[in-house]
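Researcher: Go.
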Amino acid sequence: MTKNTPITELKGVGAKRAELYGKLGINTVGDLIFHFPRRYIDYSETVPVCEAVIGEHAVIKAMVIKKNNAARIRQGLVLYKIFAEDDNGDRFTIVFYNNRYAADALEEGGEYYFSGKVSGNLVRKEMNSPTVLKTSEENLLRPVYPLTEGLTAAMLITNISEVLKQADDEFFADPLPNDIRLEYSLAVLEFAIRSIHFPKDDHAAEIARKRLAFDELLKLQLGMIMIKNRTKTENSCKMSRQNVNMQKLYDSMAFELTGAQKRAVSDIINDMCGDSPMNRLIQGDVGSGKTAVAAAAAYFAAENGFQTALMAPTEILAAQHYKTLSELLVPLGIGVCLITGSMTKKQRTEALEGLASESRFVAVGTHALISETTVFKSLGLVITDEQHRFGVGQRAALAVKGNAPHKIVMSATPIPRTLAMIIYGDLDISVLNELPKGRSKIETFAVTAKLRERAFGFVKKQLDEGRQAYIVCPMIEESGSELAAAKEYAESLKKTVLAGYRTGLLHGKMPAAEKEKVMAGFKAHEIDLLVATTVVEVGVDVPNAAVMLIENADRFGLSQLHQLRGRVGRGKYQSYCVLIAGNVTEESRQRLEIMTKTSDGFEISEYDLKMRGAGDFFGNRQHGLPDLKIADIAADRELLAECQKAAKELLSISPDLSAFPRLKKETEELFGRNNNAAEAL
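Model: Structure:
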């Protein structure tokens, strides 16, 4: 039996079960073996019935004393009720729904371990559909797998056991060189695979998990480093510091660059003058001044005779960058044009003609920049803003507009360093960790829905003082959920203390021209109160806006809340963020409390990563990160550092991994599970 053996060749796996396995991405026995437990139940850690807490999970050892006959509650629903007694003589009830097999498997007089959530009351406690283990079993540490409806843990355990019995030596062939395995104190692969499913104890399970997580993170690092190395071609857009007076740009600015901004510009200039094309991430917190750094990079490129393209994910953000870059660069003789999908044919033609003929030019736009009609005369620098919103393919499509141009990606989403090292493993990183002078801290308050009217009163006070405010809702139209719909919400404000103020509405489904009109009206203070969805998350800059009120704040990720908060505090006025929680749980309370205690986006992102995991960190999957089955980026930081070291050791011996064919194949397979990453590798 090999890893590629179809799952249907296993005993007991017919077409129906194979279909269920397919829903979990399991099509071969190799997929099955690498479908790891998410946790374990230790059946030796029992509690007596009297100490089992209602609403919590427990393992109870008890004897079955009576089994009731099956009872049909209603059409299609059959109830099986079993009564059991622990060693103290205390009784509780086990209930199964539509599971005659589970009920029949329990014998009166038999002793079992029952594991499940305790329900009922203090007089009669119950367990609904518990997992059951005979007390005669020797191994009491049992795996808990991710499942789908119709597929039980018992089925997986039976099928996995069969595979492990039939697997030959080739099945467990180790991709890691033995010296690497010994250097990092790792178990052999066969022990790790067998012990991750059926560990003898907690220690064996942890040893197995460490080895398998190491393998995943190592392959991830190998793949990203190889991508980075492949981009290190000859610098066809090599630039020179000679005759470039950067001070001319700095003197023209109405503000002084922070130390972090200056270091980032220095990094960029060094890269563009180097032997290989630049591939750099500028990562900065909200309001840290990434656009000014982009302007300096574009200025340096223009002074060297090269054009720059800056791509943003939305027309609002593109227009914002266009305005800022025009103010900074046009007075210095550098043309700036805007290219978006909503431009008129005349506007587009004029912009494209300028790009095709003028070298001292900067093009700012959306996806329209990568259309076939957009042609550059001498593209030397490509800047992508909010890069996690673009796929790898879109970044590449813009880069091919030039001859291996230098590349900068900018992100206003603070990302924990552990995650950044993986997602941006093909990039060098510059961090803007200082805010420009004059920025005051945004006061943040988290309240429950009961205090909504009071919060509205606070917003009213700010509006009466001449300020403006945002109110953010997570949805734009009614869909049967309890979340406030922005359209209806904007109307409902007329019935509150906020009635009478000029109110605008902004959401993602509006035509681009209408969005621009609303934002222009808000910026010109023709609108006092802007009700919006998360379309205002990035880029929108209205210095007079001093309040950000976010409804259903418990529904947002912390990093997204931080981005939204960053829309205020951009002027000279003290600014505020009010978070209204619609569903208050202990977890949501802790999350929102973090927002009130710190304005450090990197600290917030670390907490967000721990809470949500890497896969959900961005709220989408466009960042190109291959799916991980067992490694935990938030928890495995030390292991990740070891993997980075090991990856460099291996690649120093064999840059293309040809000396380690099995490791090379598995690295390619890992990236192959993610189209964006595979495209890059």
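Model: The radius of gyration is 30 Å.
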